[in-house]
Write a structure and sequence with these properties.
Elements: E1 2-6, H1 9-30, E2 34-38, H2 45-52, E3 61-65, E4 67-69, H3 79-87, E5 96-98, H4 107-118, E6 126-129, H5 147-151, E7 158-161, E8 170-173, H6 175-179, E9 184-189, H7 190-203, H8 212-215, E10 219-223
Parallel strand pairs: 1-10, 2-3, 2-6, 3-5, 6-9, 9-10
Antiparallel strand pairs: 4-8, 7-8
Helix pairs in contact: 1-2, 2-3
The protein binds the ligand O=C1O[C@H](COP(=O)(O)O)[C@@H](O)[C@H](O)[C@H]1O.
Ligand LXAUTJHC binds next to strand 4.
């Protein structure tokens, strides 16, 4: 794991956005189309604000979420809402977006079709993840109902997930997809998450600390 500590959050968000833009640009120089997976939640908004204004061949970039909450797009809890409002604006509005929430009754109903839609975009060119203080990443939560399946080497690309720590059902990219990304970053803030990261490294067990699935290959970005 590479760990980058920043003097403050503003510097981290700008620096990280520039690093992601550089990696997307490099991927675009070698491929006709590239994929970019991004987290939802409360942390990545400022990274998206900077990235959205970057000059890139965004029309050759497919953006997807690392995970989605099974709520309609107009819900405050929707990760799609965040991405549409903060990332897919300005220059990045030219990117393609691959939504996970389909409006079907449940994430289980959507899973097979969604796995087929994700497949052509793998391996992910660039993947940015968040992490919760409970050491979940994407929607791989400790104790989640299908965590074992999602951690398996032969896991499907996406799986529905329910967990005590998650107020609504989720759909998430699985461990092999996340681990297979050509470039992996995790963005976290605050003392609690830094402690959680240290705990995850001690445990070194994705069943207890799901973020461990990516830590070996990821750069973790942290600011107080
Ligand atoms: O529920 C989620 O949580 C994680 C972490 O979110 P944060 O609010 O603590 O930054 C996020 O990475 C994930 O995409 C989201 O669905």
């Amino acid at each position: 794991m590479k760990f980058k500590e920043y003097p403050d959050r503003d510097m981290m968000m700008i620096d990280l956005a520039n690093a992601l833009a550089g990696e997307l640009n490099q991927a675009l120089s070698g491929h006709d189309a590239v994929s970019f997976a991004v987290p939802g939640g409360t942390t990545p908004g400022p990274v998206f604000d900077t990235l959205a204004a970057v000059d890139l061949d965004w029309d050759r970039v497919t953006v997807m979420l690392t995970d989605e909450r099974w709520v309609p797009e107009d819900s405050k809890r929707s990760n799609t809402k965040l991405v549409k409002e903060r990332l897919l604006t300005d220059k990045a509005a030219a990117a393609q977006f691959l939504p996970f929430y389909t409006g079907e009754n449940s994430a289980d109903d959507a899973m097979a079709d969604l796995a087929d839609r994700v497949a052509p975009h793998l391996p992910l060119s660039v993947c940015l993840l968040g992490m919760g203080a409970d050491m979940h990443t994407a929607s791989l939560f400790p104790g989640a109902d299908r965590l074992g399946e999602a951690l398996a080497a032969d896991a499907p690309h996406v799986l529905p997930m329910r967990a005590d720590g998650a107020p609504e059902p989720r759909i998430t990219l699985t461990a092999p997809v996340l681990r297979g990304a050509m470039s992996l970053h995790v963005v976290i803030t605050g003392a609690e998450k830094r402690k959680a990261l240290e705990r995850a490294r001690e445990l070194d067990d994705p069943a207890q600390a799901p973020v461990c699935v990516v830590l070996k290959d990821a750069t973790v970005h942290w600011a107080e």
